[in-house]
Write a structure and sequence with these properties.
Shape: elongated
Distance between the termini: 87 Å
Radius of gyration: 27 Å
Number of helices: 19
Helix content: 40-55%
Length: about 500
């Protein structure tokens, strides 16, 4: 019996003794632990899976295990909840969509990047020249990949521009695809009129004659936002490891931002794509450094400084878009509070102590490659304004004026205030405020009244919301452009709908 016990003991303990001896006599003996991170091949996640990141993690005594689940967000969130993953990345919208039913298993501890051209809505130019051209259509086909970030761009545009036709329900018009490449093929072949794509398929499609970009994420703000999540239990037990992880990430990001050639070379090696294609991909993402994370997204300001809570805005906006698209019946956030999803303590600690080797809080350590560039608007002549291309009309509650007057009352201001939140997502576009009256009365007086009403709204935007005056043009059309009247609509009801103000986004064509 003793012999048998000895044999079994040796059989059990020998492999462990061998592993101990191996670790203690190699560099692996200095490793503190292993971190598991789930992501996919989106270019914005390259820094997280880069050689520099893995090298810095090893120097910190941590082994970084990367798992590519090919954007299976639903399974990713389930594994995060089960503790099979320590970290996971997602877009804000995909986290809300797939994390709500699981009780939001991760805390958002960092904004990774924003899509800036990586996703776009494209169309056959002869069928759909603009978003407004979709309104009222019954035969336009739309191809997209369900629950992808690009799909969220379509959902947002459908909500912001009041174009439900972007989300058709008819099986003959709703073409679901398994990835961007399939949607690209259907657009080029003419199987669909509109396709929601991501790079490199966006660039491939625009190389074809007759294909136009209707809306791209390069023209949006805080819409497609990638975030880093940490398992909540892991966060409680391993705060030091998380701080080391973030420190390594921001050091890696800084290195690649200051050495663009190295970034380009390593992305080419990873993807196998030529330099031109890689350049296009890199232009489609805006990485967010430590200072920007704190001052622009998490509301962490240096002493005497100012900070914005952009992440709260992005979360609230994504929740509204998902409710509007029918993904949820009501706000899915816990108690409607976006701060239940975020945890800023790690960033604040790094920011205040400066322990990642960046410059002092308040300075921007990144190079021009990642700096956010706010649009600068030059004054335009009337002829130049007329050359701009319409993007779409923002959703706007009726702006009521007293009969014959152009003063903006409290209810009218509240309607404009709501539209400003939508406008904030499109900082690069100019804005035409269009005033309309009904068709009764003197045409010249109607035109003058509609002009005054449009100017009142434009003036309120500049004074109350600090919109650049050079960005806005007010135009009054009087009763020259009435809304279409349905066959069974009474004349009085139709005339009642005609007086209105519209906020139309326009852009220059390059």
């Amino acid at each position: 019996m003793l012999g048998a016990i000895s044999i079994v003991s040796v059989w059990i303990l020998l492999p462990r003794l061998q592993e101990f001896r191996q670790r203690s006599t190699s560099d692996a003996g200095r490793m503190r632990g292993k971190i598991t991170l789930a992501l996919d091949n989106w270019i914005g996640y390259f820094i997280l899976r880069s050689p520099e990141m893995k090298n810095l993690m090893r120097r910190a005594g941590l082994s970084l295990m990367i798992e590519d689940d090919r954007a299976d967000y639903q399974t990713r969130m389930k594994r995060l909840k089960a503790g099979e993953l320590d970290f996971a990345v997602a877009t804000v919208d995909s986290y809300i969509l797939n994390g709500a039913s699981l009780g939001f298993p991760g805390s958002i501890i960092m904004v990774v990047d924003e899509s800036k051209g990586g996703d776009a809505i494209l169309a056959r130019r002869d069928r759909v020249p603009s978003l407004d051209a979709l309104k009222g259509t019954t035969d336009i086909r739309v191809a997209f990949t369900p629950n992808s970030p690009s799909n969220h761009l379509a959902k947002a545009a459908a909500y912001h521009f009041n174009v439900p036709e972007l989300l058709p329900t008819s099986p003959t018009r709703r073409i679901e695809t398994k990835g961007s490449e399939e949607a690209f093929t259907k657009l080029i072949s003419g199987t669909t009129d509109v396709a929601v794509l991501w790079e490199p398929d966006v660039s491939r499609a625009l190389a074809h004659n007759g294909i136009a970009k209707i809306l791209g994420t390069e023209d949006t703000e805080k819409l497609i936002v990638d975030i880093l999540l940490v398992n909540r239990k892991y966060s409680q037990k391993n705060p030091g490891v998380i701080k080391d992880f973030l420190s390594a990430y921001f050091q890696s990001l800084k290195m690649y931002q200051e050495n663009r050639d190295i970034l380009r070379k390593e992305v080419m090696a990873e993807t196998g794509l030529p330099g031109a294609a890689v350049d296009t991909m890199l232009k489609g993402v805006k990485w967010v450094n430590l200072t920007q994370n704190c001052e622009e997204w998490f509301g962490i300001a240096p002493p005497g400084g100012h900070a914005d809570s952009g992440l709260r805005t992005a979360i609230d906006s994504a929740a509204r878009v998902l409710v509007n698209a029918g993904d949820f019946d009501a706000n899915p956030l816990p108690d409607g509070d976006p701060y239940r999803l975020t945890y800023s303590a790690y960033l604040e600690d790094l920011f205040v102590t400066g322990s990642v080797g960046f410059t002092k809080p308040g300075a921007d350590p990144a190079g021009a490659f990642s700096k956010q560039r706010k649009a600068s608007f030059q004054e335009l002549t009337a002829e130049q304004w007329d050359q701009l291309k319409e993007v779409g009309t923002l959703k706007l509650d009726p702006v009521a004026f007293q009969h014959g007057h152009s003063s903006l009352d409290l209810l009218g201001k509240e309607a404009v205030d709501k539209a400003v939140e939508l406008l904030s997502h499109y900082p690069s576009f100019r804005l035409v405020v269009k005033g309309h009256t009904d068709t009764r009365g003197d045409p010249e007086q109607n035109r003058r009244l509609s002009q005054e009403r449009a100017e009142a709204v434009a003036r309120y935007l500049t004074v109350a919301h600090n919109v650049d005056p050079a960005r806005i043009r007010a135009v009054g059309y009087g009763g020259e452009r009435p809304l279409p009247r349905s066959e069974d609509e009474p004349l009085r009801s139709w005339q009642y709908r005609l007086p209105r103000v519209e906020l139309v986004l326009v852009r220059e064509e390059y």
